[in-house]
Design a protein that fits this description.
By secondary structure, the protein is an alpha/beta fold. It is built from twelve helices and seven strands.
Length: about 325
């Protein structure tokens, strides 16, 4: 009875406000399902209610009063952030400069902020250290180091690989082919054939492959016993360090293995070898074609032996291995 009398004596404006606020909360509960989800406009409404309605806490059902207070503080921060905006200070870096900073830091992991700033200054770009630290590339956290591609590119001219593969003749004999290939330009340096490989024969092939002081610093080979037990020490006396691949890991000598596959798929798989002399002639012609005329994807479609390109004149062709391949060139 007392509540009824208090309600009758209240101002009509208060009743309208209370009804509006309760209806709004009911609408929020109706559209949100089990857990109410307040939108930005809902929060803005209650921030305004907090400012203009004295007993606003009494009408809250969906949220707690402290939530409304926190919304008001956030709105206050946003308001002053908007008011405090200014065009003063350093101009923002262009997208091109930001991308250049990221590229420099990614491609040169050994460079610090000051080093990058110096390179940018050479290009006529004045950038602060703070901006470089902000826009530089953020890669995985690890100690600065060059990539494996860079490491191998700097050493591949000093690396050779050696390997043996077998060829079966018309009379069911097994011939052994030993070759040395340079990593730098994929050049087939030397090869020879025998039916009975021995450690002495293999060592003689290494001597023949390194005349006039031309030799690698590193020689990659597998653990075949045909090389002999003293091969590593004898090669070390020639200042050649032998790198032995792990057991049953042909990928560790991938360039030599790829050479074996190329020799088979482009030559030996299409022919029947009669004898050792026949194989010697075939491989001599193929090796000359491989080194001087065959393009290599690793060398950007160039040949191991570099030669000037003639871009004018009539095109002529020459058969290789009886027409198995053809070489095309322009007449000078």
């Amino acid at each position: 009875m007392v509540n009824l009398m208090c309600t009758a004596l209240r101002d009509r404006r208060d009743l309208v406000v209370e009804n509006l606020l309760l209806r709004h909360q009911l609408a929020v509960l109706t559209r949100s399902g089990r857990r109410p989800r307040l939108r930005a406009w809902d929060r803005l409404l209650w921030i305004l209610v907090q400012q203009f309605v004295r007993d606003w806490r009494r009408h809250l059902v969906v949220v707690q009063p402290r939530a409304v207070i926190s919304w008001h503080r956030q709105a206050w921060k946003l308001l002053w952030r908007w008011k405090s905006r200014t065009a003063l200070g350093r101009p923002r870096l262009s997208q091109e400069v930001r991308e250049l900073i990221a590229i420099m830091s990614r491609d040169n992991p050994l460079w610090g902020t000051e080093r990058i700033r110096g390179e940018l200054a050479k290009l006529g770009l004045a950038v602060s250290n703070r901006s470089i630290r902000r826009y530089r590339w953020r890669g995985p956290v690890r100690s600065p180091s060059q990539t494996w591609r860079t490491f191998l590119a700097n050493h591949r001219r000093q690396i050779w690989a050696a390997d043996l593969f077998t060829v079966h003749t018309l009379t069911f004999r097994t011939l052994y082919v030993l070759f040395f290939i340079a990593h730098g330009r994929r050049e087939l340096v030397h090869f020879n054939i025998t039916a009975h490989p021995t450690a002495a024969w293999v060592w003689r092939q290494l001597i023949e492959a390194t005349p006039w002081g031309r030799k690698p610093h590193y020689l990659i080979r597998d653990r075949d016993r045909v090389y002999g037990g003293d091969f590593v020490q004898r090669a070390k006396a020639l200042r050649i360090q032998t790198l032995l691949t792990p057991v049953r890991a042909p990928q560790a000598n991938a360039i030599a293995e790829r050479m074996v596959q190329t020799c088979r798929t482009e030559c030996l798989d299409h022919l029947i070898v009669i004898n050792e002399r026949h194989l010697q002639r075939l491989l001599s012609e193929f090796v000359a074609y491989y080194n001087t005329e065959r393009p290599h994807r690793t060398l950007a479609m160039d040949t191991p032996y570099e030669h000037p390109k003639v871009r004018a004149g009539p095109v002529s062709s020459r058969a290789i291995l009886g027409g198995l391949h053809h070489v095309y060139s322009r007449a000078a």
